[in-house]
Amino acid sequence: MIELRDVTFRWPGEAVLLQHISLHVRRGEKLVLLGANGCGKSTLLKLMNGLLEPEQGSVLWQGEPVTRAALRQKQRAVAFRRNCVLLFQHPEAMLFNPTVRDELAYGPRQLGLPDVDARVGKWADELGLTPLLDKPPFLLSGGQKQKLALGCLLALDPELFLLDEPTASLDPATVGWLVDTLVESDKTMVIATHNLSLAAELGERCIVLGLQGQILFDGPLRMALSGVSLLESAGLTHRHKHRHGKLAHAHVHAHDWD
Ligand SMILES: Nc1ncnc2c1ncn2[C@@H]1O[C@H](COP(=O)(O)OP(=O)(O)OP(=O)(O)O)[C@@H](O)[C@H]1O
Ligand SMILES: [Mg+2]
Quick check: helix, strand or coil at residue 137? Predict the structure, then answer.
């Protein structure tokens, strides 16, 4: 579905952020991307979505290079934008229409998809946004904005979802709905998170990004989550004090449920 070949990337004027990243996501796979704050997860998703170009190496979508030049060809751009969608970590970045209804309809309309009103109705309903359809998106709560941004992607019925911290602002019931919707679907997904409890629910495979922008691990999620030294070297464990009455002791935690 999507492939990165020896990708190196740096933001202008900065040190190298991602180095020699090679990975392959197959159709139907659910890949969880784990890594500490600032290691480059969001940047990697933007590279996969063709919003950034690597300094070296290449990104391939169904075997074809994703470059600015390729995305200037209208037919290629429409096929790519319809099928490879990115949920931004900060969903405000995606919302700009006057109403929730227009926001949900925007993508399908731009891409010339059929049944725009039915798509809007279905996803507004699933996400509990129907009472908000005439409201301006900027007046929604943080969690409602995240649901709306997700609805905009679901309305396109794409092949590949790139989801950047998709549950960050969602309440437990909506997280449950999302996990079921994602896990039960046959869609391909790459989900970036540093929430290890959530990761365990989501995928079978995981990639752990290190603090030097390299792939530390690519393999079964369960194996990564049980490897405390791997998680420690990726900056994904925390150490804090426990208080038992008057006694306190500190030890390393990898999972929220430990
Ligand atoms: N537009 C930008 N210009 C310059 N530097 C940037 C830009 N966006 C991100 N960075 C830098 O790139 C690095 C990686 O950022 P990125 O957002 O990819 O990390 P992340 O792994 O998603 O972190 P988090 O877990 O906090 O979401 C950070 O040091 C950040 O400051
Ligand atoms: Mg991020």
Answer: helix
209 alpha carbon, closest ligand: 1
Q: Find, among 72, 70, 48, the residue nearest to 59 by Cα.
A: 48
For residue range 50-86, what is the model confidence (pLDDT) as tens digits? 999 999 999 999 999 999 888 889 888 889 999 999 9
Instruction: Among 9, 33, 39, name the best residue to mutate to test ligand 1's pocket (greatest count of ligand atoms within 8 A of Cβ).
Output: 39
- Condensed to tens digits (0 to 9), the pLDDT of residues 236-251 reads 877 666 666 666 555 5
DSSP letter assigned to residue 57 = E
Given a contact cutoff of 8 angstroms between Cβ atoms, the answer to whether 1 and 188 are in contact is yes
CATH number of 2-235, picked from 3.30.420.250, 2.102.30.10, 3.20.20.80, 3.40.50.300: 3.40.50.300
pLDDT of the residue at 257: 43
User: What residues pair up with 239 in beta bridges, in sequence order?
Assistant: 252
Q: Nearest ligand, CA of residue 41?
A: 1
Q: Report how far residue 139's alpha carbon sits from residue 127's, in angstroms, rounded to the nearest whole number.
A: 17
Ligand 1: residue whose CA is nearest its atom 2: 11
Distance in angstroms (rounded) separating the CA atoms of residues 189 and 183: 9
Beta strand extents in 194-231 (DSSP E only): 205-209, 215-220
